[in-house]
Known about the structure:
The chain is of the alpha/beta class.
Amino acid sequence: MSRTDPLYVTRPELPPLEDFLPYLRQIWDSRVLTNGGPFHAQFEQALCEHLGVRHISLFTNATLALVTALQSLRIGGEVITTPYSFVATAHSLMWNGITPVFVDIDPVTLNLDPAKVEAAITPRTTAIMPVHCYATPCDVEAIQRIADDYDLKVIYDAAHAFGVKRQAADGWHSVLQNGDLSVLSFHATKVFNTFEGGAIVCPDARTKQRIDHLKNFGFVNETTVVATGINGKMSELNAALGLLQLQHIDQAIERRATIDALYRERLADLPGLRMLAPPAGATRNHSYFPVLVGPGFPVTRDALYQRLRDAGIMARRYFYPLISDFPMYRGLPSARPEGLPVARQAASEVLCLPIYPSLAEADLQRVVDVILQAADEGRRTQRPPAANATAQAVALAA
Ligand code: T4K
């Protein structure tokens, strides 16, 4: 890539096209395109094995999977969730007529802060919907304790958390085994993609069956409809691609780890620029590389964002604005800014830098150079505090 080509926050990973052709041939020959064909079944099985979970139901995308997950557990009333996420998290509640109740996040993990959840529970609360933001696992034990105490369901938005494992008392387990249900996204911009796609991970065959009915209009058989289900089925094309993508995912995550390490090394010790600490007791998939541009950094987050763009680097402000600031949410009592100070600060400071397996080291260095240069110039144009104080004193005296 030349120094002027745009660099995006992500680029989807794809297998060699010729490897996909035999799968396409099979689909063309069989004429089975969707509605639970052979690739769909194989992909569900392969994913269960790869992720170390018992049951998976594939979807067209994570948003429909979230909507359906809530339906499958018959959630209503109010659901406690994070304002610091992609808007689909809260939209899935609204599509079910549920009122989102936003609770602030933890300043270290940027995930829902369990210490603040209890105060938001009302007689109408039925569930908690946390997000493993940037694939950092939530404090799942604390969340489960609260859910057990108040008899609430927990549905994790695990859109970012493909393949992440956590260390528990009895060994390493998929983070997707926590709560009642977890929802994955296989969107083009995710660590693992099927172009579009998603899935619900569930603990038992009965729940999976209900979910499978719900994603197929509520059909149980040719003539029986048991619920107002939706069309959320993954097609054979996406499932076949997923099967092939699974062969390359470990290598792709390894390459992301290398990029993550390079950023950490080259951006280390920049005053005011915080990189998220790698989570203790968990594996990582390096889905995003967020940095927080704090007040100690010589230029603001938005100035840095603009400088990167001017250099053709399309870093993204995931997640700004907060969900609670969008028009359909900002009137809610829980959306009041004073209740969400940590989320508000994170949204004003975050910048996600390009990270994807095919990102060349020279391109990564382009990103680093713009940041170092911005820091350097910002420092030089900022008046030193002592000089500022003197200038102010002179101005006051005049
Ligand atoms: N929950 C959470 C926590 C989520 O983050 C998301 C999705 C969901 C739920 C819902 O999942 P899905 O229903 O989508 O399965 C993107 C994605 O569309 C969205 O999936 C993702 N989160 C969100 C964080 O980011 P945009 O509008 O920022 O994407 P876009 O199109 O600007 O893409 C970003 C960059 O990626 C582009 O500048 C270039 C590159 N790109 C993108 C696409 C789509 C490509 O190179 N090729 C592509 O095909 O929302």
